[in-house]
């Protein structure tokens, strides 16, 4: 008997009929001989509706109270789901994050899980019940206040609970079939990836692939917990996220590149004419760090000997741009840089693949593909298993398609070349 | 410095602007130098909407899950109220029933409070915060599951918490000015009652006065906690419910009758031709008790010597009629009664007044008034401070108006005669 943890997002439980359909799927898993723990998000637009209510009452609601408000969303969906399961003749018990033992720090709105003590969930499993747990929420260790985990929180709840319960698999249900080699809306020939490593998945999540959140993959990696990303609208196998996808009894050959990710949510700021003295760059990034801005890529030009000045460019979430520009303006007199340039019409295109470790030609092939597609590269950043470039936003689609093709990821090629006709 | 517990019902927090108005009232109470604890119900129709959702998912939802679902309603209203207060520059903290230490038994849907351990509320008060507590909900002592208190639950939460905190007063905010001598929709000359005893208020609640629920008054009486029923739309004094309303520094003379209550929610069943043998009545009422039906009034005719048979009539909530009739049909062969009569076109009219203890003529005056109004009495029941009669439903309004007039409760008379021109 396996212990299966399943997570259903808001679109899977958007209304009563969706909830009944999900209930049938859960009961089918139970009937197949598994113990089942389900993590559920709030129904459809509930969270937005609650945020709207909060806004009507207060322009800047306290985090503690906003968390109290938002967590009512999962309370509704989980109770309804438990009812729907009971209606099918199976025992289900719903539990809040607090009841499920999801212990967090006290950072309201983006709390981090610091412990999971799932005594009540284990008890429910031992009694043969299906446990339904509210995603996205926990209780703070210090203050015993209700907290929420922020973006991607329900996925993180699922993985954390699965790890604490020593589950065999954590199934993340979504509205697509799994993780693809690129966004199918941009690359119609994109392929579903059958298996991918934690490291690659983390890079993809960090580079704009939205299906799994970075924190959830980090958590799964730490506990070596297999994640199965799959569609709640079919019973097809989805994408397995595991530690070593190419040695665990698969006949697949490792592709050089697993996927092409893109991200249009960043902007670029250039600090022009920074005096080329020790410590000036440090002052700039210390200022940005104090403003709690996450910097992504950084490029510093070689100093022009004639002027003794250099330019520093960096990318950051577009949403943080205003704060960043204001902070930098304040230190302009002290640093003595000349001006600030701002560009939010950029996009990031990233190649991710553990295979590139052993294939030195990847960068050359990538850049050649972009050049052939007429896309200019503005910035470059690399890790051991990733190459990212910043291009103008209008060039993102062409860049993604060109890279996808250049690395033989297009559908017909994949079947023939990379996966050796395994047929998955 | 006084500790004031305030309870606001669903209509007082129906939308964002209502919530902001209530927040201002709460802050005004705090600014006047009081510590404030607020109990709040779910917004407007939230509970009905949640019940509707449950119905869409399951025809017979498990009580545990229904309670989990419904308690999200107060979670929303209390968080929004805390935000609105914060917006006015005061610190507020919202607490679920469980966090507030409302410990109940495990009877989902109508749990009884068995203990209140308001450590976190006391702590919030001690820190100068305004505590906002979810009404209607608690946590079961045995299973640690979320429970709801059933009808009138938020009032009960307010009184129980006020008692546990040793509050100076529990203010129950509603959409009318207080308790009236009769329903003003039936008797336009009805007067607001300035002060009333727990005993009288309990009789009024039991006889159909809907403003305070019986359990809440029982609880207040046990802890001798003053309740102040008042309007959330004005700052006028409302009705004080206290142990002895006429000696606590008031100049008011005790009226003979405090009020006239009525109730149209009961039906009458008559068991015709019950063999006049020992134990037959007991069997009938044991059967009804086992079906969990609350009987109100009972009348047994004198046995007709010729037939050796008698008729037994009783009243019960109309909603329970079908269950009662079915249960009785089942025992008909065993008891051998002749038939069952059912009448849901009845109404109960009750006179309540501690003063009737020392005024023996009350019953005669009451019955004469009903006779003059042409209303026939079908059944009679009395307590030390109450007389109730069952009349045909069409006669209820006339009976209430006649009784109100007969005991000098009409507005102009009250000012002149009973309250001696105290002007309240």
UniProtKB/TrEMBL annotation, chains A, B:
<dbReference type="InterPro" id="IPR054352">
    <property type="entry name" value="ACT_Aspartokinase"/>
</dbReference>
<dbReference type="InterPro" id="IPR001048">
    <property type="entry name" value="Asp/Glu/Uridylate_kinase"/>
</dbReference>
<dbReference type="Pfam" id="PF00696">
    <property type="entry name" value="AA_kinase"/>
</dbReference>
<dbReference type="InterPro" id="IPR018042">
    <property type="entry name" value="Aspartate_kinase_CS"/>
</dbReference>
<dbReference type="InterPro" id="IPR001341">
    <property type="entry name" value="Asp_kinase"/>
</dbReference>
<dbReference type="GO" id="GO:0016301">
    <property type="term" value="F:kinase activity"/>
</dbReference>
<comment type="function">
    <text>Catalyzes the phosphorylation of the beta-carboxyl group of aspartic acid with ATP to yield 4-phospho-L-aspartate, which is involved in the branched biosynthetic pathway leading to the biosynthesis of amino acids lysine, threonine, isoleucine and methionine.</text>
</comment>
<comment type="similarity">
    <text>Belongs to the aspartokinase family.</text>
</comment>
<keyword id="KW-0547">Nucleotide-binding</keyword>
<dbReference type="Pfam" id="PF22468">
    <property type="entry name" value="ACT_9"/>
</dbReference>
<dbReference type="InterPro" id="IPR041740">
    <property type="entry name" value="AKii-LysC-BS"/>
</dbReference>
<keyword id="KW-0808">Transferase</keyword>
<keyword id="KW-0028">Amino-acid biosynthesis</keyword>
<keyword id="KW-0418">Kinase</keyword>
<keyword id="KW-0457">Lysine biosynthesis</keyword>
<comment type="pathway">
    <text>Amino-acid biosynthesis; L-methionine biosynthesis via de novo pathway; L-homoserine from L-aspartate: step 1/3.</text>
</comment>
<dbReference type="InterPro" id="IPR036393">
    <property type="entry name" value="AceGlu_kinase-like_sf"/>
</dbReference>
<feature type="domain" description="ACT">
    <location>
        <begin position="269"/>
        <end position="354"/>
    </location>
</feature>
<keyword id="KW-0067">ATP-binding</keyword>
<dbReference type="InterPro" id="IPR045865">
    <property type="entry name" value="ACT-like_dom_sf"/>
</dbReference>
<comment type="pathway">
    <text>Amino-acid biosynthesis; L-threonine biosynthesis; L-threonine from L-aspartate: step 1/5.</text>
</comment>
<dbReference type="InterPro" id="IPR005260">
    <property type="entry name" value="Asp_kin_monofn"/>
</dbReference>
<dbReference type="InterPro" id="IPR002912">
    <property type="entry name" value="ACT_dom"/>
</dbReference>
<protein>
    <recommendedName>
        <fullName>Aspartokinase</fullName>
        <ecNumber>2.7.2.4</ecNumber>
    </recommendedName>
</protein>
<keyword id="KW-0220">Diaminopimelate biosynthesis</keyword>
């Amino acid at each position: 008997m396996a212990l299966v943890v399943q997570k259903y997002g808001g679109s899977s439980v958007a209304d009563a009929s969706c909830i009944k359909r999900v209930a049938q799927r859960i009961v089918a898993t139970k009937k197949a001989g598994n113990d089942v723990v389900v993590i559920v998000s709030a129904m459809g637009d509930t969270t937005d509706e609650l945020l709207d209510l909060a806004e009507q009452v207060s322009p800047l609601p306290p985090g503690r109270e906003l968390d109290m408000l938002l967590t009512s969303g999962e309370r509704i969906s989980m109770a309804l789901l438990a009812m729907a399961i009971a209606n099918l003749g199976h025992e289900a018990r719903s539990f809040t994050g607090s009841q499920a033992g999801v212990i967090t720090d006290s950072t309201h709105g983006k709390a981090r899980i610091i412990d999971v003590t799932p005594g009540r969930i284990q008890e429910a499993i031992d009694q043969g019940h299906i446990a339904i747990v509210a995603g996205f929420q926990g209780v703070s260790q210090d203050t015993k206040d209700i907290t929420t985990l922020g973006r991607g929180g329900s996925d993180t709840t699922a993985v954390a609970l699965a790890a604490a319960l020593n589950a065999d698999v954590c199934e993340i249900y979504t509205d697509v079939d799994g993780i693809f080699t690129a966004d199918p809306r941009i690359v119609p020939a994109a392929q579903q990836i059958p298996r991918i490593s934690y490291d690659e998945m983390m890079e993809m999540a960090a580079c704009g692939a939205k299906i799994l959140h970075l924190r959830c993959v980090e958590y799964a990696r730490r506990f070596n917990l297999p994640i199965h990303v799959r569609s709640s609208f079919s019973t097809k196998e989805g994408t397995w996220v595991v530690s070593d996808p190419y040695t665990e009894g698969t006949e697949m050959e490792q592709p050089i590149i697993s996927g092409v990710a893109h991200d249009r949510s960043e902007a670029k700021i250039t600090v022009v004419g920074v005096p080329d003295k020790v410590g000036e760059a440090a002052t700039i990034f210390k200022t940005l760090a104090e403003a709690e801005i996450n910097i992504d890529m950084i490029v510093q030009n070689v100093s022009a000997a004639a002027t003794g000045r250099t330019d520093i460019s960096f990318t950051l979430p577009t949403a943080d741009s205003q704060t960043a520009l204001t902070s930098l303006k304040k230190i302009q007199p002290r640093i003595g840089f000349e001006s600030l340039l701002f560009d939010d019409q950029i996009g990031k295109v990233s190649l991710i693949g553990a295979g590139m470790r052993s294939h030195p030609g990847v960068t050359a092939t990538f850049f050649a593909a972009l050049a052939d597609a007429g896309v200019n590269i503005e910035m470059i950043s690399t890790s051991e298993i990733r190459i990212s470039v910043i291009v103008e936003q209008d060039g993102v689609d062409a860049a993604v398609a060109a890279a996808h093709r250049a690395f033989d990821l297009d559908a017909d090629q994949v079947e023939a070349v990379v996966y050796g006709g395994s047929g998955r």
